[in-house]
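In response to reviewer comment 3 from the previous cycle, which asked for concrete evidence that the modeling workflow produces usable outputs, we include below a single protein chain processed end to end. The sequence was submitted unchanged, and the resulting structure tokens are shown without manual editing.
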Amino acid sequence: MPRQAEKQAEEQSLFEQLFDLYREHGEAIDRAAFAERLFPGVVAQVPLDLDLPRRIVGALSSTNDDAPNSVEAVRDLFTRLCELTIHEPMTGLFNRRYFEHRLTQELDRALRQATDCSLMLADIDNFKRINDQYGHSVGDAVIREVGRTLLSNTRPSDDPARYGGEEFALLLPDTSTADALRAGERLRAAVAALPFPQPGVEHQVTVSIGVATARAQTILDAASLVERADLALYRAKDGGKNRVVAYDAPPEAGAVSPAEREALLG
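The workflow returned the following structure tokens.
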């Protein structure tokens, strides 16, 4: 069974176990309503609240001696389901939908706390040629190795994701453009040093990287930051690939005063 199908089957199994536990110890509810309660939208599938297991069986605490065990069972199932839901199966990195959720969260926090927040987009160079010349299994191996390299070059506070196809994203909270460029250069060099996954083949895998920063006291939404990082990535590709380029917007663009920021945030 393909990896994606295995993941979906496991997600469905965990969901059904949670649903059965909820029906047994909670209230009568259909699957669609339970999914809406578990997630803020069936399509987005971003966990609402990791404390939901307590609420699912909370009513048992005064009426059922098995409540603590039930809470632990639900918590374990819920945690496993969340892990599957927010990660993509090939690399184990965050998937795009969860990454976009985290990007919005961090931009809101950066605005409130007047800190920088940087975004890095990395794309494997000439990836179609790798697939065409060596086959999709080798291409998949390249994606996995780049994903592992990205993960090993991040801080605990960073959020690495597979953004789509051969493209990766890295959210860098509390990080200036200069620091993000240094992080991008470390990643670029680490990928360039990777051995090719097919023995006996001399082929260097490289990535092009675009960096964009939402500067302190600057209003910038997630879509605009992604657009800037994507433009920087395009410049890296256009400039010869295997390089790191930053979006060079002027620092004062969109700056607001502390009073204006407070008014905007309520």
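The domain at 114-265 is CATH 3.30.70.270 (Alpha-Beta Plaits). We consider this sufficient to address the reviewer's concern, and the full set will be provided in the supplementary archive.
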